[in-house]
Amino acid sequence: MRIGVLKEIKVEENRVCMTPAGVEVMKANGHTVLVEKNAGVGSGFSDDDYITAGAEIIDTPKEIFDQCDMVMHVKEPQPSEYELIRENQIVFTYFHFAADEELTRALMKTNSIAIAYETVVGTHNDLPLLTPMSEVAGRMATQEAAKFCERSMGGLGILFGGVTGVAPAKVLVIGGGIVGTNAALMAAGLGADVTILDLDLDRLRYLSEIMPANCRPLKSSPALLRELAQDADAVIGAVLVTGAKAPKLITREMLKSMKKGSVLVDVAIDQGGCFETSRPTTHTDPVFEVEGVIHYCVANMPGAVPVTSTMALTNATLPYAVHLANKGWRQACKDVFGLKEGVNMVNGKITYKGVADAFGLDYTPIDEVL
Ligand SMILES: NC(=O)C1=CN([C@@H]2O[C@H](COP(=O)(O)OP(=O)(O)OC[C@H]3O[C@@H](n4cnc5c(N)ncnc54)[C@H](O)[C@@H]3O)[C@@H](O)[C@H]2O)C=CC1
Ligand SMILES: CC(=O)C(=O)O
Ligand SMILES: [Mg+2]
Fold this sequence. Notes:
binds pyruvic acid, 8-stranded mixed β-sheet, Rossmann fold, alpha/beta, 2 domains, globular, 7-stranded mixed β-sheet
């Protein structure tokens, strides 16, 4: 198969979807890899590194889309790429369709095969291609929350860990999955007073076992959430209903009773955000304020630490990409557990229910088109 490695063009996105080591593996499996010029520089890989690994360097994305059977990205295709995608071409990347109707309708028109990293399922009912980036985003969420709590950044001026004789910050984490657990561990490690909310009792039981004493896992309810939000110095939104639009858990009304200068980090923004007042922001302009509460809503947080993120992401994606290249998408989906759940769109048909439901569009079960 001919595989295309595209350069990321989303604002401040420095990851790359395949490392030179990944190219070597693809070559060993008999495939040709075309890498867009400078695709790896943001992650520390030069064109020469890719050439040494056996790739061909290509000048433009158009040539890659024209020549490849499967194209890979990190982030969703951007508008300038929509018309370059070809019928039956496999596009393997993060899509987060349920948060973006324009992207959904544009991809339907391409008649391509859209396989979304974020909905591939693992054998433990996990999300193996989302998990590494959720680890990064969760850890970063705490760094960003602590930073924007500083007065010079517009925050209320509280140190997460406090100091001797002075109380630490109160950090509320909503959602105790991968993002939430990593965020809570970092905040607890800094010495903050952490509460982590989830609805899933089994998950809460697990968190109760592994979390340090300054982190309380609690069962969420609207009343408890309202009470804790009023008292919090920082809130990290980390909920997920896989592939679907995020529920709005903190409303505009609730902001009025929160502390001025407190910080909301909405990690779930890539699925539409879990705070009513969230809207996507970028690394260059990451925050805005509503009712005196700072909102940080960067939809590609791991893009800020590409050296770590590219390695973590490609460790997880490469084995699936190799299966897709070796077998074609239909056979790979039959052979590899959980891969067919990643197929969100086939030749204009939506094959992921959460995406169809988000926009009231027709849903075609994947087994009907496999
Ligand atoms: N902004 C960014 O750069 C990034 C965003 N993400 C996003 O972060 C979000 C979380 O991802 P993961 O932690 O990997 O998901 P996960 O599936 O591991 O965890 C989600 C947790 O939320 C809980 N939950 C669902 N509804 C809830 C509710 N109403 N109240 C309380 N808890 C609720 C679930 O029980 C689950 O434990 C996703 O939207 C993901 O796409 C992930 C990586 C990077
Ligand atoms: C998960 C995701 O959207 C990201 O890593 O950018
Ligand atoms: Mg988008």
